[in-house]
Amino acid sequence: MVHPVQSKPAQLTLSLSEYETISLPAGQLPAQVGEQLWRSLDQNGKKLLVSFPSPKTDNQWQLTAQGWVGQVQVPHQLTLSITPKVPIARLFQLWEMAYDLRLADLAEGLTAVASVPEFFSLLAHILAQRVIRRGRQGLQQAYLRQTAVLPYVRGKLLPRQPAATSPSVQLACRYDAHTTDIPDNQIVTYTLHQIARSGQCSPAAQTAVRQAYHLLQPVVTLRPFQPSDCQNRSYSRLNQDYATLHALCRFFLEQTGPLLADGQHQLMPFLLNMAQLYERCVANWLQAWLPLPYRIKAQESTILGPNDELRFQIDLTLYGENGRPLAVLDTKYKTPDKPSPADVSQVITYAKAKGCHHALLIYPQPLPQPLHVTVGDVQLHTLAFALDEPLDVAGQTFIQQLGARLHL
Question: What's the rounded Cα separation, in Å, for the pair 391 and 400?
Fold first, then answer.
Protein backbone atom coordinates (compact mmCIF):
# COMPACT_ATOMS: atom_id res chain seq x y z
CA MET A 1 0.00 0.00 0.00
CA VAL A 2 1.40 3.38 -0.98
CA HIS A 3 0.98 6.12 1.58
CA PRO A 4 0.75 9.71 0.33
CA VAL A 5 3.72 11.87 1.23
CA GLN A 6 2.70 14.70 3.50
CA SER A 7 4.38 17.91 2.45
CA LYS A 8 5.68 20.28 5.08
CA PRO A 9 3.85 23.59 5.44
CA ALA A 10 5.47 26.43 3.55
CA GLN A 11 7.67 28.88 5.44
CA LEU A 12 5.57 31.90 6.43
CA THR A 13 7.24 35.23 5.66
CA LEU A 14 5.99 38.39 7.36
CA SER A 15 7.21 41.96 7.19
CA LEU A 16 6.31 45.08 9.14
CA SER A 17 7.96 48.37 10.06
CA GLU A 18 8.67 50.01 13.40
CA TYR A 19 5.57 50.44 15.57
CA GLU A 20 3.35 48.94 12.85
CA THR A 21 0.69 46.33 13.67
CA ILE A 22 -0.25 43.44 11.40
CA SER A 23 -3.18 41.07 11.88
CA LEU A 24 -3.26 37.42 10.83
CA PRO A 25 -6.14 34.91 10.81
CA ALA A 26 -5.84 32.45 13.66
CA GLY A 27 -5.09 29.55 11.32
CA GLN A 28 -2.34 31.32 9.40
CA LEU A 29 0.16 31.42 12.27
CA PRO A 30 0.72 28.08 14.04
CA ALA A 31 -0.17 28.36 17.72
CA GLN A 32 3.22 27.06 18.90
CA VAL A 33 5.03 29.64 16.76
CA GLY A 34 2.88 32.48 18.09
CA GLU A 35 3.61 31.30 21.62
CA GLN A 36 7.34 31.22 20.89
CA LEU A 37 7.19 34.80 19.65
CA TRP A 38 5.27 35.85 22.75
CA ARG A 39 7.59 34.10 25.22
CA SER A 40 10.85 35.17 23.59
CA LEU A 41 10.08 38.66 22.28
CA ASP A 42 7.09 39.97 24.25
CA GLN A 43 7.77 38.67 27.74
CA ASN A 44 11.53 39.08 27.25
CA GLY A 45 12.04 42.82 26.76
CA LYS A 46 8.89 43.85 24.86
CA LYS A 47 10.64 43.68 21.50
CA LEU A 48 7.40 42.61 19.79
CA LEU A 49 3.90 42.85 21.26
CA VAL A 50 1.96 39.64 20.58
CA SER A 51 -1.83 39.48 21.02
CA PHE A 52 -3.38 36.01 20.83
CA PRO A 53 -6.57 35.34 18.84
CA SER A 54 -9.59 36.25 20.94
CA PRO A 55 -12.92 38.02 20.60
CA LYS A 56 -11.05 41.23 21.42
CA THR A 57 -8.82 40.79 18.33
CA ASP A 58 -11.62 39.40 16.12
CA ASN A 59 -10.03 35.95 16.43
CA GLN A 60 -6.79 37.12 14.83
CA TRP A 61 -3.14 37.26 15.80
CA GLN A 62 -1.87 40.81 16.19
CA LEU A 63 1.87 41.54 16.04
CA THR A 64 3.04 45.05 16.89
CA ALA A 65 6.65 46.05 16.31
CA GLN A 66 8.33 48.13 18.99
CA GLY A 67 11.62 50.04 18.78
CA TRP A 68 13.51 47.01 17.47
CA VAL A 69 14.34 46.23 13.83
CA GLY A 70 15.84 43.18 12.20
CA GLN A 71 14.84 39.61 11.57
CA VAL A 72 13.45 36.71 13.60
CA GLN A 73 13.42 33.14 12.37
CA VAL A 74 11.65 30.05 13.61
CA PRO A 75 13.37 27.46 11.39
CA HIS A 76 11.14 25.88 8.74
CA GLN A 77 8.10 27.82 9.98
CA LEU A 78 8.47 31.60 10.11
CA THR A 79 10.63 34.50 8.99
CA LEU A 80 9.62 37.85 10.49
CA SER A 81 11.32 41.02 9.24
CA ILE A 82 10.96 44.37 11.01
CA THR A 83 12.20 47.28 8.89
CA PRO A 84 13.44 50.63 10.24
CA LYS A 85 11.84 53.94 9.38
CA VAL A 86 15.21 55.39 8.43
CA PRO A 87 17.08 54.36 5.25
CA ILE A 88 19.75 51.68 5.63
CA ALA A 89 22.46 54.25 4.85
CA ARG A 90 21.26 56.38 7.77
CA LEU A 91 21.06 53.28 9.96
CA PHE A 92 24.71 52.63 9.16
CA GLN A 93 25.63 56.19 10.20
CA LEU A 94 23.80 55.71 13.49
CA TRP A 95 25.53 52.39 14.08
CA GLU A 96 28.95 53.75 13.16
CA MET A 97 28.63 56.67 15.59
CA ALA A 98 27.00 54.59 18.35
CA TYR A 99 29.81 52.01 18.34
CA ASP A 100 32.53 54.60 17.68
CA LEU A 101 33.69 52.88 14.50
CA ARG A 102 35.01 54.30 11.25
CA LEU A 103 35.05 51.45 8.77
CA ALA A 104 35.94 52.96 5.42
CA ASP A 105 35.87 49.53 3.75
CA LEU A 106 32.14 49.30 4.47
CA ALA A 107 31.24 52.25 2.28
CA GLU A 108 31.34 50.38 -1.03
CA GLY A 109 29.52 47.29 0.23
CA LEU A 110 26.85 49.39 1.90
CA THR A 111 25.53 50.64 -1.44
CA ALA A 112 24.29 47.12 -2.21
CA VAL A 113 22.60 46.64 1.18
CA ALA A 114 18.82 46.98 1.11
CA SER A 115 17.71 45.41 4.40
CA VAL A 116 18.75 44.93 8.01
CA PRO A 117 19.56 41.20 7.49
CA GLU A 118 21.88 42.18 4.62
CA PHE A 119 23.45 44.76 6.93
CA PHE A 120 24.03 41.96 9.48
CA SER A 121 25.65 39.73 6.84
CA LEU A 122 27.90 42.54 5.63
CA LEU A 123 29.19 43.25 9.14
CA ALA A 124 29.64 39.53 9.87
CA HIS A 125 31.63 39.17 6.64
CA ILE A 126 33.81 42.17 7.54
CA LEU A 127 34.50 40.74 11.02
CA ALA A 128 35.39 37.33 9.59
CA GLN A 129 37.71 38.80 6.96
CA ARG A 130 39.55 40.87 9.55
CA VAL A 131 39.96 37.84 11.82
CA ILE A 132 41.31 35.74 8.94
CA ARG A 133 43.76 38.51 8.01
CA ARG A 134 44.92 38.82 11.61
CA GLY A 135 45.24 35.05 11.89
CA ARG A 136 47.53 34.95 8.89
CA GLN A 137 49.65 37.74 10.37
CA GLY A 138 49.72 36.05 13.77
CA LEU A 139 47.21 36.19 16.61
CA GLN A 140 47.83 38.29 19.68
CA GLN A 141 49.77 36.34 22.32
CA ALA A 142 50.59 36.88 25.96
CA TYR A 143 52.46 35.20 28.77
CA LEU A 144 50.14 33.44 31.22
CA ARG A 145 51.26 31.97 34.52
CA GLN A 146 50.54 28.26 34.79
CA THR A 147 51.13 25.53 37.36
CA ALA A 148 51.66 21.91 36.34
CA VAL A 149 53.29 18.67 37.46
CA LEU A 150 56.06 17.84 34.99
CA PRO A 151 58.80 15.21 34.66
CA TYR A 152 61.31 18.05 34.41
CA VAL A 153 61.92 21.48 35.91
CA ARG A 154 60.29 24.40 34.10
CA GLY A 155 60.21 27.89 35.56
CA LYS A 156 60.03 27.85 39.35
CA LEU A 157 60.08 24.59 41.28
CA LEU A 158 57.31 24.59 43.88
CA PRO A 159 57.74 23.15 47.42
CA ARG A 160 58.09 19.38 47.56
CA GLN A 161 54.76 17.55 47.27
CA PRO A 162 53.82 14.39 49.20
CA ALA A 163 55.53 11.33 47.81
CA ALA A 164 53.60 9.65 45.03
CA THR A 165 53.17 5.91 44.70
CA SER A 166 54.52 6.03 41.16
CA PRO A 167 58.32 5.64 40.94
CA SER A 168 58.46 8.20 38.10
CA VAL A 169 59.81 11.67 38.88
CA GLN A 170 57.05 14.30 39.04
CA LEU A 171 57.91 17.94 39.78
CA ALA A 172 55.41 20.70 40.57
CA CYS A 173 56.41 23.82 38.63
CA ARG A 174 55.12 27.33 38.09
CA TYR A 175 56.05 28.93 34.78
CA ASP A 176 54.99 31.53 32.20
CA ALA A 177 53.67 30.18 28.90
CA HIS A 178 53.39 32.18 25.68
CA THR A 179 49.88 31.46 24.37
CA THR A 180 47.14 32.72 22.06
CA ASP A 181 44.47 31.40 24.45
CA ILE A 182 43.78 34.81 25.99
CA PRO A 183 40.56 36.87 26.42
CA ASP A 184 41.35 39.09 23.40
CA ASN A 185 41.05 36.04 21.14
CA GLN A 186 38.42 34.22 23.21
CA ILE A 187 35.98 37.13 22.77
CA VAL A 188 36.35 36.93 18.99
CA THR A 189 36.02 33.14 18.97
CA TYR A 190 32.82 33.18 21.01
CA THR A 191 31.31 35.92 18.84
CA LEU A 192 32.04 34.02 15.63
CA HIS A 193 30.51 30.92 17.19
CA GLN A 194 27.31 32.83 18.02
CA ILE A 195 27.09 34.36 14.55
CA ALA A 196 27.57 30.96 12.90
CA ARG A 197 24.75 29.51 15.02
CA SER A 198 22.34 32.37 14.34
CA GLY A 199 21.43 31.25 10.82
CA GLN A 200 21.15 34.92 9.80
CA CYS A 201 24.15 35.15 7.44
CA SER A 202 24.18 35.01 3.67
CA PRO A 203 25.98 31.92 2.26
CA ALA A 204 29.14 33.92 1.51
CA ALA A 205 29.22 35.51 4.97
CA GLN A 206 28.48 32.17 6.65
CA THR A 207 31.41 30.56 4.82
CA ALA A 208 33.77 33.35 5.91
CA VAL A 209 32.54 33.21 9.52
CA ARG A 210 33.07 29.45 9.70
CA GLN A 211 36.52 29.77 8.13
CA ALA A 212 37.49 32.41 10.72
CA TYR A 213 36.09 30.34 13.57
CA HIS A 214 37.93 27.17 12.50
CA LEU A 215 41.13 29.22 12.30
CA LEU A 216 40.81 30.13 15.99
CA GLN A 217 39.18 26.98 17.35
CA PRO A 218 42.33 24.78 17.68
CA VAL A 219 44.27 27.36 19.70
CA VAL A 220 41.59 29.35 21.58
CA THR A 221 39.17 28.14 24.25
CA LEU A 222 35.46 28.66 23.53
CA ARG A 223 33.82 30.29 26.53
CA PRO A 224 30.96 32.79 26.87
CA PHE A 225 31.38 36.55 27.15
CA GLN A 226 29.08 39.50 27.78
CA PRO A 227 29.00 42.63 25.57
CA SER A 228 30.54 44.62 28.43
CA ASP A 229 33.63 42.38 28.24
CA CYS A 230 34.41 43.99 24.86
CA GLN A 231 34.79 47.47 26.38
CA ASN A 232 37.57 49.21 28.28
CA ARG A 233 40.25 46.81 27.13
CA SER A 234 43.93 47.74 26.80
CA TYR A 235 45.51 48.08 23.36
CA SER A 236 48.97 48.87 22.11
CA ARG A 237 50.52 49.32 18.69
CA LEU A 238 50.83 45.52 18.48
CA ASN A 239 47.13 44.83 18.90
CA GLN A 240 45.41 48.10 17.97
CA ASP A 241 43.37 46.31 15.29
CA TYR A 242 41.70 44.31 18.09
CA ALA A 243 39.89 47.49 19.13
CA THR A 244 37.83 47.29 15.92
CA LEU A 245 37.36 43.53 16.27
CA HIS A 246 36.06 43.93 19.81
CA ALA A 247 33.76 46.81 18.85
CA LEU A 248 32.21 44.58 16.18
CA CYS A 249 31.99 41.73 18.70
CA ARG A 250 30.21 43.99 21.17
CA PHE A 251 27.63 44.84 18.51
CA PHE A 252 26.92 41.20 17.68
CA LEU A 253 26.81 40.05 21.31
CA GLU A 254 24.36 42.84 22.16
CA GLN A 255 22.04 42.28 19.23
CA THR A 256 22.12 38.54 18.53
CA GLY A 257 22.01 35.16 20.18
CA PRO A 258 19.61 32.22 19.93
CA LEU A 259 16.80 32.38 22.46
CA LEU A 260 15.73 28.90 23.48
CA ALA A 261 12.01 28.26 23.35
CA ASP A 262 9.74 25.32 24.04
CA GLY A 263 9.41 22.81 21.23
CA GLN A 264 11.81 21.38 18.69
CA HIS A 265 13.09 24.65 17.24
CA GLN A 266 15.08 27.61 18.41
CA LEU A 267 14.00 31.18 17.92
CA MET A 268 16.94 32.91 16.26
CA PRO A 269 16.70 36.71 16.33
CA PHE A 270 18.85 39.51 15.08
CA LEU A 271 17.22 42.67 16.40
CA LEU A 272 18.66 46.16 16.67
CA ASN A 273 17.49 48.25 19.61
CA MET A 274 16.87 51.54 17.81
CA ALA A 275 16.30 53.52 21.02
CA GLN A 276 19.66 52.37 22.38
CA LEU A 277 21.34 53.05 19.03
CA TYR A 278 19.87 56.57 18.92
CA GLU A 279 20.87 57.35 22.51
CA ARG A 280 24.47 56.20 21.97
CA CYS A 281 24.71 58.07 18.69
CA VAL A 282 23.64 61.35 20.33
CA ALA A 283 25.98 60.77 23.27
CA ASN A 284 29.02 60.00 21.12
CA TRP A 285 28.31 62.91 18.78
CA LEU A 286 28.20 65.36 21.67
CA GLN A 287 31.32 63.88 23.25
CA ALA A 288 33.15 64.38 19.94
CA TRP A 289 31.85 67.82 18.93
CA LEU A 290 30.87 69.81 22.02
CA PRO A 291 33.16 72.86 22.32
CA LEU A 292 35.33 73.24 25.39
CA PRO A 293 34.89 73.59 28.33
CA TYR A 294 31.63 71.64 27.99
CA ARG A 295 31.54 67.86 28.24
CA ILE A 296 28.88 65.18 28.26
CA LYS A 297 28.60 62.15 30.50
CA ALA A 298 26.41 59.20 29.49
CA GLN A 299 24.44 56.81 31.69
CA GLU A 300 25.30 58.53 34.94
CA SER A 301 23.91 56.90 38.06
CA THR A 302 22.55 59.23 40.76
CA ILE A 303 21.47 58.05 44.21
CA LEU A 304 19.23 60.02 46.58
CA GLY A 305 17.89 59.56 50.07
CA PRO A 306 19.51 58.98 53.47
CA ASN A 307 19.47 55.25 52.83
CA ASP A 308 20.00 55.41 49.04
CA GLU A 309 16.32 54.71 48.45
CA LEU A 310 16.22 56.28 44.97
CA ARG A 311 18.55 55.46 42.10
CA PHE A 312 18.37 57.20 38.72
CA GLN A 313 20.16 56.27 35.50
CA ILE A 314 20.36 59.49 33.49
CA ASP A 315 20.85 59.26 29.72
CA LEU A 316 23.09 62.31 29.36
CA THR A 317 24.37 65.01 31.72
CA LEU A 318 25.94 68.19 30.36
CA TYR A 319 28.75 69.71 32.45
CA GLY A 320 30.29 73.15 32.18
CA GLU A 321 33.28 74.86 33.74
CA ASN A 322 34.55 73.50 37.06
CA GLY A 323 32.52 70.31 36.56
CA ARG A 324 29.22 72.04 37.27
CA PRO A 325 26.15 70.16 35.91
CA LEU A 326 24.24 72.44 33.53
CA ALA A 327 21.49 70.22 32.10
CA VAL A 328 20.15 66.70 31.84
CA LEU A 329 19.23 65.34 28.41
CA ASP A 330 16.87 62.41 27.89
CA THR A 331 16.67 60.85 24.42
CA LYS A 332 13.28 59.55 23.26
CA TYR A 333 13.20 57.37 20.17
CA LYS A 334 9.58 58.13 19.35
CA THR A 335 7.66 60.90 17.62
CA PRO A 336 4.57 61.93 19.60
CA ASP A 337 2.67 65.15 18.96
CA LYS A 338 3.85 66.44 22.32
CA PRO A 339 5.82 65.08 25.31
CA SER A 340 3.95 62.76 27.61
CA PRO A 341 3.41 63.83 31.25
CA ALA A 342 5.46 60.81 32.35
CA ASP A 343 8.46 61.88 30.24
CA VAL A 344 8.21 65.46 31.51
CA SER A 345 8.06 64.33 35.14
CA GLN A 346 10.98 61.97 34.61
CA VAL A 347 13.39 64.49 33.10
CA ILE A 348 12.48 67.21 35.63
CA THR A 349 13.15 64.75 38.44
CA TYR A 350 16.54 64.01 36.89
CA ALA A 351 17.33 67.74 36.71
CA LYS A 352 16.43 68.30 40.36
CA ALA A 353 18.48 65.25 41.36
CA LYS A 354 21.55 66.76 39.64
CA GLY A 355 20.88 70.31 40.80
CA CYS A 356 20.43 71.50 37.19
CA HIS A 357 18.18 74.32 35.97
CA HIS A 358 17.70 72.87 32.48
CA ALA A 359 16.04 69.64 31.33
CA LEU A 360 15.83 68.60 27.68
CA LEU A 361 13.85 65.92 25.89
CA ILE A 362 15.49 64.95 22.58
CA TYR A 363 13.48 63.43 19.72
CA PRO A 364 14.45 62.09 16.25
CA GLN A 365 12.35 64.78 14.58
CA PRO A 366 10.78 68.10 15.63
CA LEU A 367 7.52 67.65 17.53
CA PRO A 368 4.31 69.16 16.12
CA GLN A 369 3.75 70.66 19.57
CA PRO A 370 7.20 71.49 21.05
CA LEU A 371 7.43 72.44 24.68
CA HIS A 372 9.45 75.26 26.27
CA VAL A 373 8.21 75.87 29.82
CA THR A 374 9.50 76.58 33.32
CA VAL A 375 8.58 74.14 36.09
CA GLY A 376 9.66 75.54 39.43
CA ASP A 377 13.32 76.41 38.93
CA VAL A 378 13.78 74.04 35.97
CA GLN A 379 13.45 75.12 32.34
CA LEU A 380 12.15 72.30 30.16
CA HIS A 381 12.81 72.22 26.39
CA THR A 382 12.16 69.76 23.57
CA LEU A 383 14.83 69.57 20.86
CA ALA A 384 15.41 67.40 17.80
CA PHE A 385 18.51 65.46 16.81
CA ALA A 386 16.90 64.73 13.47
CA LEU A 387 17.30 61.47 11.58
CA ASP A 388 15.80 62.72 8.32
CA GLU A 389 19.06 64.40 7.32
CA PRO A 390 22.75 63.42 7.30
CA LEU A 391 24.22 62.96 10.75
CA ASP A 392 26.78 65.74 10.35
CA VAL A 393 24.06 68.26 9.52
CA ALA A 394 21.72 67.01 12.25
CA GLY A 395 24.47 67.14 14.87
CA GLN A 396 25.59 70.67 14.07
CA THR A 397 21.99 71.91 14.02
CA PHE A 398 21.37 70.27 17.39
CA ILE A 399 24.44 71.88 18.98
CA GLN A 400 23.29 75.27 17.72
CA GLN A 401 19.84 74.74 19.24
CA LEU A 402 21.37 73.50 22.47
CA GLY A 403 23.57 76.58 22.74
CA ALA A 404 20.64 78.91 22.09
CA ARG A 405 18.43 77.28 24.73
CA LEU A 406 21.13 77.06 27.40
CA HIS A 407 22.89 80.32 26.47
CA LEU A 408 26.21 78.51 26.04
Answer: 14
The model's pLDDT over 221-276, given as tens digits with 9 standing for 90+, comes to: 999 999 999 999 999 888 899 999 999 999 999 887 544 444 445 566 788 899 99
Q: What is the 3-state secondary structure (H, E, C) of 299-342?
A: EEEEEECCCCCEEEEEEEEEECHHHCEEEEEEECCCCCCCCCHH
pTM summary value? 0.80
Can you list the domains of the chain with their CATH numbers? 12-83 (no CATH), 88-139+182-257 (no CATH), 290-406 (3.40.1350)
Residue 270, amino acid: F
Rounded to whole angstroms, the Cα distance separating 371 from 347 reads 13
Ordered strands of the 68-74 beta sheet:
12-17, 78-83, 68-74, 268-273
Residue 19 φ/ψ, nearest 5 degrees: 60, 15
Sign of the alpha-carbon dihedral angle for 16, 18, 23, 27: positive
340-388 confidence digits (pLDDT tens): 999 999 999 999 989 999 999 999 999 999 999 999 999 999 999 999 8
293: preceding bond cis by omega (within 30 degrees): yes
